[in-house]
User: Fold Helix-turn-helix transcriptional regulator from Phytohabitans rumicis.
Amino acid sequence: MDPIRGTLPLMGDYFERRDWGRAYEDLARLGTPGAADLERLAIAAYLTGHDEESDDAWLRAHQEFLRLDDGARAARCAFWLAFGLMLRGEDVRAGGWLARAQRLLDEGGEGECAERGYLLVPVALGALDADPPAAYASFARAREIGARFGEPDLVAIGTLGCGEAMVRAGKTAEGVALLDEAMVAVTAGEVSPRIAGIVYCAVLLECHAVFDLRRAREWTVALTRWCDTQRDLVPFRGQCLVHRAQLMQLQGEWPDALDEARHACERLADRPAAAMAYYQLAEVHRLRGEFPVAEEAYREASRRGYRAQPGLALLRLAQGEAAVAAAAMRTVMDQAGDRITRSYLLSAHVEVMLAADDVPAARAAATELAELADDLDTPYVRAVSAHAAGAVCLAAGDAKAAVATLRRAWTLWRELDAPYDAARARVLIGLACRALGDHDGATLELDAAAWAFRKLGAAPDLSGVERLAVRATPPGGPLTPREVEVLRLVAAGKSNRVIAADLFLSEKTVARHVSNILGKLGLPSRSAATGYAYEHGLT
Assistant:
C-alpha cells in the first residue's frame, strides 16, 4: 500500500474528531486523492480559512466525479464551489457554476434529488429582498426535499431562509422563531460545521436588522461554546465578524471588540463589508477617547463606501464641536428617507440636537424612536427610546418625568448587560436628581457612572462626569449678573430665542452668554447647567 494512502484511517479519525487543522494538513498531503478525499479536503480547507484551497478541492472533486460518470455528485460539488464564491461576493463565477450544476442534473435525467433542493437556495436568496413570499416558497421547498432525502444541512438552510423571508415580510415573531429553530440544529450538532457558521452569521445579521441584540448575544454565547470543541475552526466570516464586535462593544468588552474589529478589517480587506468593519473600529476608538485614530478609521470607512455618520458627528460632539455635529446630523437625517436607515441615526440625533440646544428637533426624533420601539418591541429599542425620551424631558426642565423615564432605560440597559449605556443613563439621572434638589441621590448616581466609565476605559465620559461631580462654587460663583439671569431662564427650559425676547437681547448675544456660562462652570450641556442652577438656588 502506498505509505501516504496508508494513513487514511488516521486522517479519517482527525476529520471525524473535527480536528480540522490536522485533517486539512494530512488530506492536503495525499498524493492521489480520490473524489471523497477531495470533498473532505474542500470542507477541511474551508473550515480552517483556506478559501482558495477549498475552491480548488471542490473543482478537483467535481472533475473526478465527472470522470466517474456521477453527475449528481459532480453537481453537488459545483454547488458548494458556487456557494463559497457567493459568500465572498463573486456572483458572476458563482452563477456559472450553478448553471453547470443545473445542466448536469437536467442532462443526466436526474429527478427530484437532494442536489435539486440545494440549487433552490440561490434562487430563493435572489428573491429574498425583492419578493419575500416567493423566497419563502423556494426555501420551504428546499427544506422539504432535505427532509425527504435525509439532508440535515439542506433542512437547516431551508429553515433559516424561511425565517429570513418572514422577517423581511414584516412577520418578525414568526421569522425569529424559525431562525431559533435553525440555530438549535447547529448547537445540537445536527448539521455539518460548514453550515454552522453560515447559519449563525445569517441569524446574527437578521437579529441586528430587527435590533434583537439579546437574541444575538445568546446565540453567540451558545455557538462559541460549540466552536470551542473543534480545533482550528474558523467559523465566523463576512459581515457577522463586524456584528460580533458590536455585541462585544455593547457588553463592555472593549479590548475584545477592538481585536474583533481589527480582525474583521484584515479578513475582509478586499470585500465590501470591510467598510463596515472600519466604521466599527472607529466606534470603539471614539468611546475610548482615541480621537485621531477614530477619525482616520471613519475616513477609511467612508473611502470604502460606508456612511461615517452618526459616529463622526458624535466624535465632533466629544471634541466640543456641537455646531459642527448638529450640521452633519441634520444633513444625514434629511437624506435618510427609509425607516431602517433613520432607525440607526435617531439616538445620536437626539443627543446631538440636545447639545446644540434644539430641543424640538430632539423631541421629534425621540417620538420617532418611541414609535419604532412600539413596532419592534425588543429590549434594545425600548432602552434606546426610554433613554432618548428621558434626556429630552431633562432638557425641557421636567426633571421628575426624566428620572422615571431614565430609571426605566437604566433597568433595560442592565438587563441587556450594556454597562456603558447604563452608566450614561445614570449620569442623566444624577442631573435630574440634582435639579430636584436631591443632592445625595445626584452624588451617588454620578459616582456610580464614574466608576463604570473608569472600568470600561471610557476616558471622555469619565472626564465629563468628574467635572459634573466636582462641588460647584457658591451661588452665582464666577458668573456675571447678566449670566446668572440667563442661567435662570435656561433652567426654566426656555430657548435662546425666548430668552433673547425676554431680556431684549439678540439671539446671538444669548448664545454667547450660554457658551460663557458652560465654560466658566465646566459644564457640558444646558441640562447640566439646569442642574447647577437648581442645586445652587438660582431658579
Notes: DSSP finds 30 helices and no strands in the chain. The radius of gyration is 28 Å.
